[in-house]
Amino acid sequence: MNVRLRHDAIVRSLRRNGTSTIDALADEVGASRRTVLRDISALRDEGYVIHADVGRGGGLQLDPQSVQTNARLTVPEVFALLISVAAMRAAGNLPFSELADAGLAKIEKALPSDKVKDLRAFLECLHIGQLSPLQDLSDMSKMDPDLLPAFEAAFLGRHFIRFDYRDAKGRKTRREIEPQAMLVLPPLWYLVGWDPMRADFRHFRMDRISNPEVLAGTHFRRRHVPFEDDVCPYSALKAENRTSRL
Amino acid sequence: MNVRLRHDAIVRSLRRNGTSTIDALADEVGASRRTVLRDISALRDEGYVIHADVGRGGGLQLDPQSVQTNARLTVPEVFALLISVAAMRAAGNLPFSELADAGLAKIEKALPSDKVKDLRAFLECLHIGQLSPLQDLSDMSKMDPDLLPAFEAAFLGRHFIRFDYRDAKGRKTRREIEPQAMLVLPPLWYLVGWDPMRADFRHFRMDRISNPEVLAGTHFRRRHVPFEDDVCPYSALKAENRTSRL
DNA sequence: CAAATGGTGACATATTTTGGCACCATTTTG
DNA sequence: CAAAATGGTGCCAAAATATGTCACCATTTG
Fold first, then answer.
1. Which residue has the higher pLDDT, A26 or A15?
2. Residue B88 CA to D28 C1' — how many Å?
3. Is A25 among the domain residues?
4. Do A74 and B47 touch (CB under 8 A)?
5. A96 with B74: Cβ contact below 8 A
């Protein structure tokens, strides 16, 4: 592994894990203890503030405020990102592809045009996928941008989440639920949660939610596999269903 | 002189003088002609557009617009990119994963630390995996790679989709359903569909589906808003639900 | 004290970078 | 046209740098 890559890997690992030991890092980046120590030294020279506690329970800790750089991506890195997304899209259309597309569009815009052309040719050659904007599968445009992170944070921390909800008739209510799942009914996204007030499950269209707020002081128990095969929680939909076969 | 410093010096020189020859640059940075040529090549790989005119009065010229790859991404966009790359890396180590990693490292480095925390939570919640040594992908890895594209195609074309399904008891059945939704209950993904044979909604764990097949000759009517606010299709879950408030 | 941890120095070995050289292709100038 | 100026490539040995191993030190925790 490259020196540069290893440095990045170490910084990321420290950012991610909060604290780590030299031996753990050495193992993680596939280098020797000595090399990691040299890397740490180099990073410190570059301005990273890395605290070190010695002894049992000790370890290295990166001062999060110490470095503020702008992400200046090189063209090959951008290509790699693009290819990644294209590959993912080819492998299966995860609901994030549209967002990723938006990000990629920005990157593409910033690239010199001849490079973009190269990239397209390259992708076509690899049969990984087209760059053209994906057919609209999920309407996230009207969604509160804070909602997904809030939902994920709430889900992970098992905290309640509170938000304003505007229902189909325009009535506004303030809800407080346990986030349980995310339902994608293209093009709509739903947040599914248990409402302790109503002692019932509720679902909410994500584009009708506003001002999400994670209630950090609260806590609920997560169910790991909420339901099993052939349970059918969708009976409410039966009445509406109409099928036709050609 | 360091490689990086030399690269910087070359770029600065080209910026300052507008145009320069290889020999002049070699003299300026104190390296050989060959080394400067290699540096130029490296800079081009990084995205610098350096025009070269040959012959008398020729020389190197830096395209001033080529350097700014200032793609300013929103945090959700960055998230989407990261997820894409994580998914790709999990799907199989394409040769680009290392480069993509480097790009991600920069993005991660540039994010405020609290956002990085959000990101980690987000990824963990989606169970796509960790950013660095990617861990298990649980159900995604066992998912038939053809499934999601098939689902999307079937959904968009309103075609029926047929597949083999292995239920919790290991029984195998061939199903034929209208694809209706995708349910994400971390870490499991479900495909939700109307089963006309059973005249009921069914959901299927995506990792238990195999040999998906879109029935192009068939057609069903799509419901645009399959269910509305305050309908609760999750009654089956009620019995299992336990909440506690701290 | 023993174990866990960060840290340093020395030295042999890998790996990468560099310089030098021979050539090639293109363009301008005389 | 011929010569000169310029960018560009391949090859190889030498130089520079990075890495691993090992021995050892200092501190902290239990």
1. A26
2. 43
3. yes
4. yes
5. no
Specify whether A170 is located in the same domain as A234.
yes
**pLDDT of B35 over the 90 cut:** yes
Higher pLDDT, residue B162 or B230: B162
Domain count, chain A: 3
State the pLDDT at residue B179: 72
Q: In 3D, which of B38, B18, B14, B49 has the Cα closest to residue B28?
A: B14
Distance A54 CA to D24 C1' (A): 17
A215 contact B CB<8A: no
Q: Which nucleotides of C are covered by protein (CB under 7 A)?
A: 3-10, 17-22, 25-29
Task: Tell whether B44 is covered by a domain.
Answer: yes
Does the interface predicted TM-score (ipTM) exceed 0.95?
A: no
Domain boundary among A39, A62, A85: A62
Residue B102 and residue A5: Cβ atoms within 8 Å? yes
Half-sphere exposure of B220 (CA within 13 A, CB side): 24
Instruction: Record the tokens describing residue B27, joined without a space.
Output: 């003299």
The confidence band for A132, taking pLDDT boundaries of 50, 70 and 90, is very low
Interface residues for strand D (CB within 7 Å) are A 3, 6, 30-35, 38-39, 54-58; B 20-23, 34, 37, 40-41, 52-60
Minimal Cβ distance to B232: which of A111, A218, A236: A236
Query: Average pLDDT of chain B?
Result: 61
Q: Which residues span the domain enclosing B190?
A: 142-238
Q: Does B234 touch chain A (CB under 8 A)?
A: yes
Angle between helix B97-110 and helix A75-91 axes, rounded to 10 deg: 110
Give the Cα separation of A10 and B121 in Å (integer). 20
Q: Does residue B243 lie within any of the structural domains?
A: no
pLDDT tens-digit map of B169-194: 778 888 887 776 555 544 456 676 66
Q: CA B236 → CA A137, B146, B232, distances in Å?
A: 28, 30, 10
DSSP B206: G
Measured CA to CA, the distance from residue B232 to residue A175 in angstroms comes to 15
